[in-house]
Amino acid sequence: MNKAETKVRVRYKETDQMGVAYHANYFIWFEVGRTEMLRGLELPYSEFEKSKLFLPVLKAYCEYKLPARYDDELTILTRLESLQNVRLIFNYEIRRDKEVLVTGYTEHAFVNDSGRPVVLKKFSPFLWNRLCKSLGKKIK
Question: N or C: which terminal CB in the chain sees fewer CB atoms within 10 Å?
Answer without folding.
Answer: C
